[in-house]
Amino acid sequence: MDYVKLLEEILASGYINVIRFFKRAEFTFSQKKDAEKALFKSLKIIESKGGIHAVTAKRLLCNFDNFINTLSAQQYWSSLNVRAEKIATNTAQIILQEKEVIIYIS
Predict the structure, then answer these.
(1) Residue 3, number of CB atoms within 10 A of its CB
(2) Would you say 27 and 35 are in contact if contact means Cβ atoms under 8 Å apart?
(3) Domain boundaries defined on the chain
(4) What residues contact residue 76 under an 8 Å CB cut-off, 6+ apart?
(5) What separation in angstroms does the CA of 90 have from each of 14, 41, 95, 96?
(6) Could you tell me the sign of the dihedral formed by the alpha carbons of 13, 15, 17, 20, in that order?
(7) Residue pLDDT, tens place only, 6-47
């Protein structure tokens, strides 16, 4: 995925939100660090291009830790973690039930 183009679209919308980037790029909870790196790298590229969004990118880079650690961003990643845990739990339950059926049939 072209993260720079995606971020430029988000910046152009005027509604700059880190969660929009993570959602639209479809990062999972296990990819949190990769998501943050992709965002940082994309901001650096946009800043270096010197276009219309360079000033915004520079401002976000200066406050990058604050930008990625807002309460809403923390809640977003927590919700993805809970969702991943639910899926893992449901999968484990299905496997256990299938094993029980196999044992019962044997």
Answers:
(1) 18
(2) yes
(3) 3-105
(4) 19, 22, 23
(5) 40, 36, 9, 10
(6) negative
(7) 999 999 998 888 999 999 999 999 999 999 999 999 999 999
Contact 77, 30 (CB under 8 A): no
Torsion of CA 82, 13, 35, 78, to 10 degrees: -20
Both tokens of residue 53? 């969004």
Q: Is the pTM of this model over 0.85?
A: no
State which amino acid sits at residue 50.
G
Give the residue among 48, 44, 49 at the shortest CA–CA distance from 64. Answer: 44
10, 12, 84, 104 from 98: Cα distances, Å = 45, 51, 21, 10
Tokens for 9, please give them.
Answer: 């679209």
Are 83 and 27 spatial neighbours (Cβ–Cβ below 8 Å)? Answer: no
Neighbours of 105 (CB within 10 A): 6
